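Exercise 3.2. Students should predict the tertiary structure of the chain below and write it as structure tokens, then compare their answer with the key that follows.

Predict this chain's 3D structure.
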Amino acid sequence: MGEDTARKSAVLIPLIQSADTWAILFEVRSPQLSRQPGDICFPGGRSEKTDSSLRDTAIRETCEELGIPAETVSVIGRLGTCVATPDLFIYPFAGVIDADTKLCPNPEEVSELFTVPLPWLMKQSPEKFTLRLSADADQDFPFERIVSGKNYPFRNREVIEPFYDYRGRTIWGLTARILEHFVSLMNHRIYE
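Answer key:
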């Protein structure tokens, strides 16, 4: 429920061949961005009407942010939907960027790129921390229309945030949640 009216974004977990192993490419968001400046993320963004699918959104955004042609990206598959908030759904895809592709990150969106070896990630368990969110109603909220009024026992919400630390960099939030899901799928496939 709510998926039809929610904002939709798609991200790509970019796999690249690095030396003799696979690695995941991460972006550091530009400090001039208004939302999450300096955070570590996957390439991606909001779906546009010109995108024929969420897969195309992930590819388009990856190409815009990394400055690469679409033919250098091969999508492997889609992961589970990430419900960021009730009005924002994120659709992650895993894909491979051709090894000889020259990356030219868009400086308006990306301040730097780095990789983390996939074998290292597959041996990690992220640290977990609880973030508690509480209800904060607007002044015009109609308390008079609900049982108990202003004393209504709204439930606080808890979000478990995973954190990965790699060589002085912290990957957390939605990126870490998507990463944790991807790594668990990879580990499951290997040990099947």
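Discussion points: The chain is about 20% helix and 40% strand. The two ends are 33 Å apart (CA to CA).
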